């Protein structure tokens, strides 16, 4: 695992999730790995951050996962992520920041509608 100390900041407004209402599911990258489900910390139009449990190895920076599922309440987004930073958070937890690429125009529209709703509601 590589851990970066220099953060690459997203310029878009981030929406935080503190109540566990948002998750990301990352399928196994290799046959010897298991899928990862993690709590989403924040989401913006361009990216996502999430925290991994202490016993889950962090992904390498620039790793691409082509098929992830993000759930925010009843909203489901599918797409790919590119890992941009991996840092140690409190304790032994690992915080991962990534760019998010919706799989299709449908998921891009859902993301924009979700962000728009969060802007109005939050």
What does this structure look like?
The chain has a six-stranded antiparallel barrel. It has one helix at residues 105-121; strands at 15-16, 22-26, 36-43, 47-52, 64-72, 75-88, 94-102. The model is unreliable at 1-8 (pLDDT under 50). The chain is built from one helix and seven strands. The longest helix is centred in the last third of the chain and has 17 residues, at 105-121. It is 14% helix and 43% strand. It is mainly beta and 122 residues long. The radius of gyration is 14 Å and the shape is globular. The chain has one domain (15-121): Beta Barrel (Thrombin, subunit H). It starts with 14 loop residues before the first strand and ends with a helix.
What brief labels describe this structure?
mainly beta, single chain, 14% helix, Thrombin, subunit H
Summarize the structure.
With 122 residues, the chain is mostly beta strands. It is 14% helix and 43% strand. The protein has a single domain, classed as predicted glycosyltransferase like domains (Thrombin, subunit H).
């Amino acid at each position: 695992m590589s851990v970066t100390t220099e953060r690459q900041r997203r310029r878009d407004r981030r929406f935080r999730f503190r109540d566990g209402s948002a998750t990301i599911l990352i399928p196994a990258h290799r046959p010897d790995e298991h899928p990862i489900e993690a709590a989403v910390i924040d989401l913006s139009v361009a990216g996502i951050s999430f925290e991994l449990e202490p016993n889950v190895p962090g992904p390498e920076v620039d790793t691409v996962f082509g098929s992830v599922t993000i759930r925010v309440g009843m909203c489901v987004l599918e797409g790919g992520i590119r890992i941009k930073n991996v840092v140690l958070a409190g304790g032994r937890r690992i915080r991962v920041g990534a760019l998010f690429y919706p799989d299709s125009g449908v998921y891009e529209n859902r993301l924009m509608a979700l962000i728009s709703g969060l802007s109005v509601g939050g």
